[in-house]
Design goal:
The complex is a heterotetramer. By secondary structure, chain B is of the alpha/beta class. Chain B contains 19 helices and 34 strands. The model of chain B has no long low-confidence stretch (mean pLDDT 93). The chains are: A alpha/beta, B alpha/beta, C alpha/beta, D mainly alpha.
Chain lengths: 327, 664, 147, 128
């Protein structure tokens, strides 16, 4: 697929449709491919990658890119396309300045999970039906079940559909897939408050406030984050109080409620492996249950559940009485 | 750093009886930024206010905290006092230590402690207060009245006489409305036309009034003081400025079979017509649904006979755009459709009529020239049955009727019954009623006169069935007081149909963003205290569009409405509430979420150029709040993820500071 | 087990909308309807002005309970503010519950300007609930593992 | 009101609210069998509301109602008078069950050739 993408990118550069390409660049290691912009065919040949590790969501980068002159080519995976669509809904990206080639994604690999299998020094990774085939410097070849090493976000993939594109690399679009992404949330809901508190205290105490989750999140695109804004009343660069420390994740989840497409980037990038997606999914689950199913970024949407209402909405007391939240 | 003065009020013993005011003043005096702190018996009294003013001057105070009664009581008093000595009124904060402390807590120690905490919170807030200056918007000194019935005419006349321009938009070819169709008015029985038509003429001659008849409102933009309205002047196919209203065309037009809506279809008119003799403007109108010339291109009689060449078959709808400072809704009412009530056989027999049709049958200018004749065979009816509450006072879930009392039916039915008996004493008149409701000056006397002097048979009960049979109407009804069922062979049945708001009201309300109740009546800003204003600033209500009412009430409301409009138009500028939302453009993402939750449409977006950190410039979409439209609810501030949207007077960090002060 | 603070008294922050609930509180005062001094009221223009951040900040600064009061649904002075507040607070409370914060520390009540009695009763029952829940430790401790 | 229990029972069976009645009499105005009846549709509504049920139980009017539902159809307040008439009628039938036959009496009455089906239908009819 990488070769086909590079070939198509070259064509589009050559015929002047676009003047640059948003994709993924080789890192120092095979598994640290990062989003990057390529300006020429040479650059593409030298660095463009597409493999089982190009999980990063590139849509957020397009906010800045579409502020620039010229048109950019972006390869969007299904989950990237949801984020991009949501950014369009929020007028954050200029659709006219992006030429989108939709690319399929059959699940990306989590390097941590591969390492846990005792495999290091990877030199190549190939996808095969149901398996990843990995070669290492020690000239070993490992065949790993894909599902075992999927990223969390890919394990619970919500859709293979590309919701916004100019062309599809494969010519075919995917569809929504059944998933059990709310199971973990439901499991937590079924616990007692004490257990839940213990769980979250354990998870959140590890947070080092590196802001990786915020910086990667395609919904967290504020010009300036409230936590950096002296007028918001809670800015605290010098950590004068522990407020931000304690509340950061709740407020962040609240701010993206209704806009989070559940792309799972927050959990992917967290160096402390905090399952941050469980906070966002809790909101999504609640909104689906209380206000009707809603998928951010799925279509052109003016309002989301937090910016709309019905006069017969449930009263806030409902959360104390409805089932599934433990005793 | 602010220089804050704290003033603790005793409120006689109301506060001082439970709160140690000295201790409160003393303790708050040590708070950072507080340069002066004192207590006084009655802070709201003249001398109390003088104390505040003097202290502001003496200590150069930049902020004032009054620990007293509820801000809902005296916030304005103290703001004015501060303003009088040059301190911005929004630098005053009130700590409510009466309603929230002294009146509900009995223990001196607890109460004093709480008073101090509330004082601290107010001080914390004042530290972050900034002087606010209320925005001013100019006022377009012209009013629009939508609807040219008696309500609209009266409102327009009153506004015009105060010296302001008024435009009346009326959807039908003439002003006058429903009152023009009515024969006599209760309880004085003067002729409706005799009192209405002079007003219509007055409206047309008053130089400040401009009548757009046969026109409709297409679009409303803007806000209080600054509305821009698009008015659609529907094509009459007659040049209004040339037509003299001689009526020759309406006599010569060969198309004679057009149901006359002014007579509710009880007679016919021509395809070119003037609704009635006293129409204002008295201009002919061609009905394109019936005009042979417009339909087939063959005829042109009216054009030939017109001496002033006023006929123009090519006329098109024309859009006029006008600016207004205030909009008056006077869209009125119409009777409900009664054919859904099958039991009354309205659709089966022409002799079953509605009360408004009965008005036309009684009217000297009506289809029968004022002689009461049955529509079916044009004979004189001898037995007439009136049925009240047809479609009024129904169950809320009813699909046929309305849950409310239509208010005017009892009186006009009494009027019909009385007039019928007066003119035709050989007629037996029955009125079936559930209750007879006659609150009003000389109303009950009027009803009693119908019964006692004119011998109208009032029967407590309801008609259950009307069957047309051999030219008669068999009426089956209950007489609850005699506990029997009545069977009357009537010649005519008159239904007192419930009234409902005009159909045009709902789409108009949407254009005006004015609220309506479930029955499509416009809602008032306050049902008791602001009954002629809509909650939407600059929109006023006149007449039946707000709820059922009779002519005297309609006229009083119309004048009241005019007074409110004049009160708005005399102002050169509107001073807004400065506690409105504002967006920090540097931080705004332009995501439109605030726009989605704003109930007033106060937020718009513009593209602005910004310098980026890397010295390039970029165009960003940013929110802008119209302070004249914003009412300061703050819905946008919570929706805004970046905190770019904030509210003056209740800013994020002011409220945070209060929280912190309370939770210290 | 934490040492029980003998002198502990609940600290409750009440956000009241200016048009209904604050007036309701005034009416409670005018009618001399007693409710505990532990309740401190902050006036906001509308319940939709209450940012979840304010609530979290109150908890974090030591409040034991937070109650948001607004006009009854349908009666909002700003027509729709309390409908938005209702969704926001429902979601926020659900999240706090999800994080294991005790139920009942947060509440939303609709109190009209005429309901002085209801205001006092609501505050009495809320203080009772908070007193039985005891001191709010969890939100402060959310990120401090005590092992 | 001694008949309170009976009244409650009738209100329950009728599943309608007599308080909604505004006493317009349209039901009785529409009733096709008015003249035959001792108590008329509107009276059923108000007498049930007042707990005045004994006279209704004794009255032939119960069986003179044709259940044509015109009163239900015409009522502006959706009171549904026919439901009250039907409810009183049912109450009457249920009362009869009390003094006719109890299960205890049955064994003595059974004859050799009594069909089983008769027993079953007797229970259906006479017990409640």
């Amino acid at each position: 697929m990488q070769d086909r993408m590079i070939a198509r990118a070259k064509e589009l550069l050559a015929d002047g449709t676009v003047d640059r390409v948003m994709g993924w660049k080789k890192g120092e290691f095979l598994y640290d491919a990062t989003p990057a912009v390529f300006y020429s065919a040479e650059e593409l040949d030298a660095g463009f990658v597409m493999n089982a590790f190009t999980a990063a969501n590139v849509s957020k980068y397009l906010i800045k890119e579409t502020k620039k002159e010229g048109k950019i080519l972006a390869f969007l995976k299904p989950c990237d396309s949801f984020s991009f669509r949501q950014l369009m809904n929020e007028h954050r990206v200029d659709r006219d300045k992006v030429y989108i080639v939709g690319i399929p994604s059959w699940g990306k690999a989590d390097m941590e999970k591969i390492r846990q299998k005792g495999i290091t020094g990877i030199t190549s990774i190939e996808e095969r039906e149901g398996d990843f085939v990995v070669n290492t410097i020690l000239r070993e070849t490992h065949v790993i079940k894909k599902y075992d090493v999927y990223l969390e976000k890919c394990k619970n993939c919500k859709s293979k559909e590309i919701v916004v594109y100019d062309e599809l690399l494969d010519g075919e679009n995917g569809a929504a897939v059944t998933n059990s992404r709310f199971d973990e949330v439901a499991k937590l809901e079924a616990m007692t408050p004490d257990e839940r508190f213990a769980f979250w205290q354990n998870e959140l105490s590890r947070c080092i406030r590196c802001n990786a989750c915020r910086n990667v999140c395609p919904a967290c695109t504020c010009e300036k984050c409230v936590f950096d804004n002296p007028k918001s009343g809670l800015e605290n660069k010098a950590a004068a109080t522990s407020f931000e420390e304690n509340m950061f994740h709740i407020i962040r989840a609240f701010h993206v409620a209704g806009r989070c497409t559940d792309c799972g980037e927050c959990s992917r990038v967290c160096p402390q492996h905090i399952p941050l997606h469980l906070l966002n999914r809790k909101f999504i689950k609640d909104m689906n249950e209380l206000y009707g199913d809603f998928q951010a970024g799925e279509a052109e949407q003016q309002r989301h559940p937090v910016t709309s209402y019905r006069t017969d909405d449930a009263e806030p007391g409902v959360i104390y009485t409805r089932g599934g939240t433990g005793k | 750093m602010q220089r804050i003065g704290v003033f603790v009020c005793w409120c006689g013993s109301n506060i001082a009886g439970t709160v140690d005011v000295k201790k409160v003043a003393e303790t708050l005096g040590h708070e950072p930024g507080v340069v002066f702190s004192t207590d006084y018996q009655y802070m709201c009294s003249q001398s109390g206010q003088d104390l505040v003013k003097d202290s502001i001057r003496t200590y150069n105070l930049t902020g004032v905290v009054i620990c007293s009664c509820s801000p809902r009581m005296h916030e304005n008093t103290f703001r004015k006092a501060a303003a009088s000595v040059g301190l911005n009124p929004y630098m005053v904060e009130i700590a409510n230590i009466r309603e929230q402390v002294s009146w509900i807590h009995k223990d001196m120690e607890t109460a004093t402690e709480k008073a101090i905490i509330l004082g601290r919170a107010a001080i914390a807030k004042v530290h972050l207060n900034a002087p606010l200056i209320a925005g001013e918007t100019p006022v377009t000194k012209r009013a629009l009245v939508i609807g040219g019935g008696i309500a609209g005419i009266q409102t327009a006349l009153d506004i015009a006489e105060a010296g302001f321009e008024v435009d009346i938009v009326e959807k039908s070819p003439t002003i006058g409305g429903k009152m023009a169709q009515i024969d006599k008015t209760f309880p004085t029985l003067d002729c409706a036309a005799c009192i209405l038509t002079p007003k219509m003429v007055e409206a047309s001659q008053q130089e400040n009034i401009n009548i757009y008849a046969f026109s409709e409102v297409d679009e409303v933009k803007g806000f209080v003081g600054n509305f821009t309205v698009k008015i659609r002047r529907k094509a009459r196919y007659v040049k209004e400025e040339l037509c003299t209203g001689c009526g020759l065309c309406t006599e010569k037009c060969p198309q004679k079979k057009v149901p006359d809506e002014f007579n509710l279809g009880l007679s016919n008119r021509r395809a070119i017509y003037i609704p009635f003799a006293q129409a204002v403007p008295k201009v002919a109108t061609i009905d394109p649904n019936y005009c042979t010339m417009l339909k087939t291109g063959k005829c042109g009689v009216c054009s030939k006979v017109c001496g002033v060449k006023a006929i123009d078959y090519t006329q098109k709808d024309e859009i006029v755009e006008r600016k207004y400072g205030a909009i008056v809704v006077a869209t009125g009412f119409e009777p409900i459709k009664v054919d859904k009530f099958e039991e009354f056989a309205y659709a089966q027999s022409p002799d079953v009529v509605t009360s408004l049709e009965y008005e036309r049958l009684m009217n000297a200018a009506g289809p029968t020239g004022g002689t009461l004749l049955r529509p079916s065979d044009k004979t004189h009816p001898h037995t007439i049955v009136f049925v009240q509450c047809v479609g009024s006072r129904c169950d809320e879930k009813s699909e046929k009727g309305k849950p409310y009392c239509s208010k005017v039916c009892c009186m006009y039915t009494a009027k019909h019954a009385m007039l019928t008996r007066e003119k035709y004493p050989d007629t037996e008149v029955y009125v079936f009623y559930i209750d007879v409701r006659t609150p009003g000056k000389n109303f009950d006397e009027f009803y009693r006169r119908a019964v006692e002097h004119y011998g109208v048979h009032y029967v407590k009960g309801m008609v259950g069935k009307v069957t047309p049979e051999n030219g008669k109407l068999k009426v089956q009804a209950s007489d609850l007081l005699d506990n029997r069922q009545l069977h009357i062979d009537a010649d005519m049945v008159v239904l007192a149909a419930a009234i409902e708001p005009d159909k045009s009201a709902r789409p108009l309300a949407t254009m005006l963003t004015a609220s309506m109740d479930t029955n499509d009546f416009f809602t008032e800003a306050h049902p008791k205290l602001r009954p002629v204003e809509s909650p939407t600033a600059g929109v006023f209500l006149s007449g039946m569009c707000q709820g059922p009412k009779d002519i005297p009430e309609t006229v009083s409301q119309a004048s009241a409405c005019a007074a409110k409009v004049i009160g708005l138009l005399v102002k050169d500028k509107l001073v807004g509430n400065p506690c409105v939302a504002h967006s920090d453009e540097m931080m705004c993402n332009g995501c439109s979420q605030c726009q989605n939750v704003c109930p007033y449409g106060a937020i718009t977006y513009t593209e602005k150029e910004f310098r980026m950190p890397d010295r390039t410039t970029a165009v960003r979409r940013v929110a802008q709040v119209n302070p004249a439209v914003c009412q300061g609810c703050g819905a946008c501030t919570v929706t805004c993820p970046s905190g770019a949207m904030d509210l003056f007077g209740f800013s994020n960090n002011q409220i945070m500071a209060e929280v912190d002060a309370i939770c210290k | 087990m934490q040492v029980k603070n003998e002198n502990w008294k609940p600290l409750i922050v009440a956000f009241c909308c200016n048009w209904c609930s604050y007036a309701g509180a005034d009416l409670a005062g005018t009618n001399r309807l007693n409710y505990p001094a532990d309740v401190k009221i902050i006036r906001v223009p509308c319940s939709c002005r209450v940012n979840p951040m304010f609530i979290l900040r109150a908890f974090q600064r030591g409040a034991d309970g937070v109650i948001v009061c607004g006009c009854h649904p349908g009666d909002c002075h700003y027509t729709s503010g309390n409908y938005y507040a209702r969704r926001r607070m429902t979601l926020l409370f659900s999240m706090l519950d999800y994080l294991g914060i005790e139920k009942g520390r947060t509440r939303v009540e609709w109190v009209s300007a005429a309901e002085g009695q209801k205001f006092a009763e609501t505050m009495n029952s809320f203080v009772e609930t908070i007193t039985s829940l005891g001191e709010n430790k969890r939100l402060e401790d959310l990120r401090c593992k005590t092992e | 009101m001694e008949n309170n229990n009976l009244r409650e029972q009738i209100l329950f069976t009728a599943n309608a609210d007599p308080k909604k009645c505004m006493k317009c009499g349209k039901c009785s105005g529409a009733c096709p069998n008015y003249d035959e009846m001792e108590y008329h549709p509107h009276q059923f509504v108000s007498m049930v509301q007042n707990g005045d049920i004994e006279p209704l139980l004794k009255s032939e009017s119960l069986y003179l109602c044709l259940t044509c539902m015109v009163c239900v159809e015409r009522c502006p307040r959706n009171v549904q008078p026919a439901r009250f008439i039907e409810a009183v009628r049912l109450a009457k039938i249920r009362q009869q069950g009390e003094n006719r036959l109890t299960p205890q009496q049955i064994p003595a009455k059974i004859e050799e050739d009594t069909p089983q089906q008769l027993l079953v239908s007797a229970f259906r009819k006479y017990t409640k």
